[in-house]
């Protein structure tokens, strides 16, 4: 038999496979709270503008709450024949309140209905991402505060470059995640306009009040063009874009934790709660959570690519293609939240091995730049010449199989006669980091300042 919602011009029902490809109820039931909030706002507005009676609006309001509690209580028989959450809710509303239910869809289409529902859902996810990011920032900040002066190697090309402080390294991620938060906040601000009342695409002849529904749903106002309102999913793409960049940051931190927890580095020890063993190798402590976080970017960026490709080339206004927006965004959002929570747990629980950090900080001629800088400031050499002299000293140390501080003064003077004994003061890793006091530098004094600034921000 024909569909009860739109079957007026049909005499036969859909093929079973048609129904299977068309229905979205298996996943868009996640929008139930948003759908009912949107319908409540719409019904109240219809009554306030005299389009439906107050008694019908009241019956609809109560009925919607009943349907919501049925669905949230888990005792609800969703029907694929009714395609999606919007028609499942409305059909049940009709059973609950009778004829008044048929007036709810006045001056509305599923096109603006789904647009408003999905915007509300994605808006919530921006807020959830913000809280989860703040929690991870706090975990990193605790690490930074504890280790403001723990020296460790800083790397470029994964080769030892210059000593840095643990706190400085942790704060690098706090800064990155701060920008992630601002990206979600920015996307949220732009998406916070209501498409409700755009109707199918052209607006409506009913005297609706779009400002009223926008306000009731916490939007800053209505979207200004009804075609645009039902056609675009850029708000979802912005969310996925922000999520992708955030996932890149998480993946890089995860990669560092994988490297750092290896037997070759031993920079960190993950807690038992965040490690896994091997079924054959009894000694193993694997950083599986970090590896999975490193990998999760694939799903998030995949969703970003998938929805971008769905939207590209679609003529205005609504096309059913756009139903493909939801599963991608749902999965990306779920994945991001899980990754953020796992990362916060891991970072909060991990223990830095300060001895291993310190020992590694001095390897790889990590204070060679300090030596070159000393040649400039103490002896007045041009930096390029100082660079060359230092390179020769590194080559000498390498040939001797020792580190720079292990060279004798005589050996140093064989390379440059002007070198004095006080050169050894600048070759230590603590001196090195303490000297890097430029704004944003790795010196413990700067790290403590930055921790203080972030503490104020994060509360
Ligand atoms: N389930 C649909 C979606 O997710 C709702 C909108 C359907 N609108 C329509 N005219 N078929 O996009």
From TrEMBL:
Which GO terms are recorded in the biological process aspect for this UniProt protein? L-arginine biosynthetic process via ornithine
Tell me what reaction this enzyme catalyses. 2-(N(omega)-L-arginino)succinate = fumarate + L-arginine
* SUPFAM superfamilies in UniProt: L-aspartase-like
Domain Fumarate lyase N-terminal, first and last residues per copy: 8-302
Return the Gene3D superfamilies for the record.
Answer: Fumarase/aspartase (C-terminal domain), Fumarase/aspartase (Central domain), Fumarase/aspartase (N-terminal domain)
The record's section on InterPro entries has: Arg_succ_lyase_C, Argininosuccinate_lyase, Fumarase/histidase_N, Fumarate_lyase_CS, Fumarate_lyase_fam, Fumarate_lyase_N, L-Aspartase-like
- Name the enzyme group at the top EC level: lyase
Provide the Argininosuccinate lyase C-terminal domain boundaries. Answer: 365-434
* Pathway the protein acts in: Amino-acid biosynthesis; L-arginine biosynthesis; L-arginine from L-ornithine and carbamoyl phosphate: step 3/3
* EC number(s) given by UniProt: 4.3.2.1
Location within or outside the cell: Cytoplasm
Q: Which GO terms describe its cellular component?
A: cytosol
Keyword list, A-Z = Amino-acid biosynthesis, Arginine biosynthesis, Cytoplasm, Lyase
The record's GO molecular-function terms, alphabetically, read: argininosuccinate lyase activity
Q: Which NCBIfam families match?
A: argH
The record's similarity note reads: Belongs to the lyase 1 family. Argininosuccinate lyase subfamily.
Q: What is this protein called?
A: Argininosuccinate lyase
Source organism: Loktanella fryxellensis
Per the UniProt record, the lineage of the source organism begins with: Bacteria, Pseudomonadati, Pseudomonadota, Alphaproteobacteria, Rhodobacterales
- Gene name as annotated: argH
């Amino acid at each position: 038999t024909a569909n009860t919602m739109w079957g007026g011009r049909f005499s036969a029902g859909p093929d079973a496979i048609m129904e299977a490809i068309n229905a979205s109820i298996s996943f868009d039931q996640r929008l139930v709270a948003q759908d009912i909030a949107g319908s409540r706002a719409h019904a109240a507005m219809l009554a306030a503008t005299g389009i439906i009676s107050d008694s019908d609006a009241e019956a609809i309001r109560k009925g919607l709450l009943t349907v919501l509690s049925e669905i949230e209580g888990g005792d609800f028989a969703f029907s694929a024949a009714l395609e999606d959450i919007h028609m499942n809710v409305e059909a049940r509303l009709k059973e609950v309140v009778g004829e008044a239910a048929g007036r709810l869809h006045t001056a509305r289409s599923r096109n603006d209905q789904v647009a408003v529902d999905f915007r509300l859902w994605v808006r919530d996810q921006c807020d959830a991402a913000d809280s989860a990011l703040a929690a991870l920032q706090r975990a990193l900040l605790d690490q930074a505060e504890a280790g403001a002066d723990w020296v460790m190697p800083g790397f470029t090309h994964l080769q030892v470059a210059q000593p840095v402080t643990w706190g400085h390294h942790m704060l690098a991620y706090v800064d990155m995640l701060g920008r992630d938060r601002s990206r979600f906040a920015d996307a949220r601000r732009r998406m916070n306009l209501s498409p409700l009342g755009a109707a199918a695409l052209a607006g409506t002849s009913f005297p609706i009040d779009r400002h009223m529904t926008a306000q009731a749903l916490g939007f800053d106002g209505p979207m200004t063009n009804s075609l645009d309102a039902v056609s675009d999913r850029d708000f979802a793409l912005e969310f996925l874009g922000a999520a992708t960049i955030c996932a890149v940051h998480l993946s890089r931190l995860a990669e560092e934790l994988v490297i750092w927890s290896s037997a070759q580095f031993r920079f960190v020890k993950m807690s038992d709660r965040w490690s896994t063993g091997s079924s054959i190798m009894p000694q193993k402590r694997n950083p599986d959570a970090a590896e999975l976080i490193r990998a999760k970017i694939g799903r998030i960026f995949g969703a970003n690519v998938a929805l971008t490709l769905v939207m590209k080339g679609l003529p205005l206004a609504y096309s059913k293609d756009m139903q493909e927006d939801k599963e991608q965004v749902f999965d990306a959002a779920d994945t991001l939240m899980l990754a953020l929570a796992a990362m916060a747990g891991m970072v909060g629980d991990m223990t830095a091995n300060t001895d291993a950090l310190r020992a590694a900080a001095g390897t790889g001629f990590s204070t060679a730049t300090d030596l070159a800088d000393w040649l400039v400031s103490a002896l007045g050499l041009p930096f390029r010449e100082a660079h060359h002299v230092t390179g020769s000293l590194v080559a000498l140390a390498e040939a001797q199989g020792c580190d720079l501080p292990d060279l004798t003064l005589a050996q140093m003077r064989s390379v440059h006669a002007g070198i004095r004994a006080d050169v050894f003061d600048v070759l230590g890793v603590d001196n090195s980091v303490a000297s890097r006091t430029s704004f944003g530098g790795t010196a413990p004094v700067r790290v403590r300042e930055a921790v203080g600034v972030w503490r104020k921000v994060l509360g």
